[in-house]
Amino acid sequence: MTLPPVSSAHVFGPVTSGRLGRSLGIDLLGEKICSFDCLYCEVKPTTRLILDRREWVPTAQLLDELRQWRDAGHTPPEVLTLGGSGEPTLHSGLGAIIAGCKALFPNLPVAVLTNSSLMHLPEVRRELQAADMVLPSMDTLIEAEYRRLNRPHRQVDLQRMAQGLLAFRQEYTGRLLLEILLSKGINDSNANLAALQDYVARLQPDRVDIVTLSRPGAYPEAVAVDAATLGRWRATLCGHAPTTACAPLLCASEPLPRQDPETLAQAVLASLSRRPQTALQLAQALHAPAVAVQLALEKLQQSGHIQHRGSKTDDPSEQFFSAI
Ligand code: SF4
């Protein structure tokens, strides 16, 4: 099987996001460039721990790839999500990229994932104004937990970051969906829960998503919390935001389109190069029949393009795969 080099593509998916629905991703970095090196990162360990804003991938190239994707006649996604291999606000062309996405897909919402580390910068907050949804993370307000879990660049100050996000909330008129990821024995402390309870009350996000690891993280120290802990956190933080959950915002209802096996295998490989997924997650994300995805996975395994990445249970459908 002949497959293109997946590292050249900055538009990936669509993938099914538990928080956003069927999302077409745009990778603004091109490699693992981030201001954090989180234990739980789904991408991989950070190779460039950095705080400089640069045009890491030319803006014109990103928008050109997006235009090509649109013109190829794919089933439209439900949302465009700026994220990818690292922290998207590190791209200095963020504002122009959001504007370009809206020009190419005037009927789709644009979402931006961020770890909040650059929220203290007025220019970043200004550029994010044009996004329909911003999804910031704030896993902990306890300094020792933050250093252990998020492993930040030494110049990312936790208190300054938290204040920056509060300032953004004051200015921003779009939807703010806060994510708190819990890792067992690290940031699931009562001290963090109390601090975040106060913080969420002040932030007033449109929604809080309390989540835990659902895939293997970059480092083995990151372990999921149990359902009881998740439930306790959700119950405590509920009431400070209109919604506290992990449900998709949007849902799809179009029939599954036919795809030739080669094209589907390329889409599966491109998706797995971004994050580990199960066959079921891939089928939902790519809007493809589960049987066809399973066949593509088998072919990709035989040709040495993908590998197993573990499983939550013995059920084969829950096995994770990632690109090699
Ligand atoms: S999880 Fe997000 S913020 Fe953390 S290292 Fe990965 S890309 Fe960066």
From TrEMBL:
UniProt keyword Iron present: yes
Organism superkingdom: Bacteria
- Record bears the keyword Transferase: no
In alphabetical order, the GO MF annotations are: 4 iron, 4 sulfur cluster binding; catalytic activity; metal ion binding
Kindly give the SUPFAM superfamilies that the UniProt entry links to this protein. Radical SAM enzymes (SSF102114)
Region Disordered, annotated ranges: 305-324
Record keywords? 4Fe-4S, Iron, Iron-sulfur, Metal-binding, S-adenosyl-L-methionine
Question: What's the protein called, per UniProt?
Answer: Radical SAM core domain-containing protein
Domain named Radical SAM core: which ranges?
16-247
Q: State its cofactor.
A: [4Fe-4S] cluster
What the entry lists under PANTHER family is as follows: FEMO COFACTOR BIOSYNTHESIS PROTEIN NIFB-RELATED (PTHR43787), UPF0026 PROTEIN SLR1464 (PTHR43787:SF11)
CDD domains registered for this protein in UniProt: Radical_SAM
- Listed InterPro entries: Aldolase_TIM, GTPase_Obg, rSAM, rSAM_sf
